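Forwarding these from the shared drive since the link keeps breaking.
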Amino acid sequence: MSTWLEDQGFQKLEASGTMCEVWFSSASVEFLVLESRNDRPKVKQLNRILGRLCDYGLQGVTSNEQFRQECSLPTGKKDGSKKKVYAVKAHQLRLYGGFICGNKMFLVIEGARKKRDQADQEQLKRIAQALGSYDGER
């Protein structure tokens, strides 16, 4: 069904459930592989959070500390549309992404190790633009 994402280098989370699918960009996969060497429990925690998102949707991830909307930013499209950018958090590890195709697909675009709570605004802008470019593509 979503081979167009695979063509773009995305990998599907095996635990994708009934509420939505989670897809990882190649950059986010590289980040998780690198971080799993140093902090495997936190990487597993990120995957558990995303697994709950797959199974139960936004209602399944009730902790604002683990999953929260960071902002809503312009996608760069001529129609002026915006995309909500979410952060999935496990201590200092963050995965950033958002929903496309309604709320049926969650794309993880980038990851970061944060020393402070404030998100990198340039990174968030890149993610919103990437989400805008993938939304409506299929």
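-- next protein --
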Amino acid sequence: MITFITTFFVILGGIIAWSTFTDKFHHKPNRDKISLEFKYNRNKRISSDLIYCTEVLINELEYGNEMANEFLTWSQYLSEMKESHYKNYTKSNLNKLLSTVNYEGIYSAMSQTLDSDFKVYQGDLIEVTNLLKQYKISYTLN
């Protein structure tokens, strides 16, 4: 009887250990993929909004030759934003990103990069929309 009880608890412990192991290593990448896809699409959306608002700023206020910062005019900034957007936010790049989630350390690095990019886009979008509001230029974000 004691052997049966001992065997039962050993098997039960093995099942619990296996369940914990498979949950940790097999289900986590799915959650990571969902999180990365959300952040990627969020960045794609805010990048599109920033491009749109910059175009409105340039067209409505003729700001194309005005300096956006100490290095770029608004037209140059817009050109670089478009190039970056159309190069980085493709279905192919999303698929590559999601296929790397299974490699250790990649998720954290990619997640931090996407979060950092979002903060930059967000700051730039706030700056551009504040200029539009200052000059009472109407715009509509999707």
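The two ends are 70 Å apart (CA to CA). The chain has a mean pLDDT of 87.

- D.
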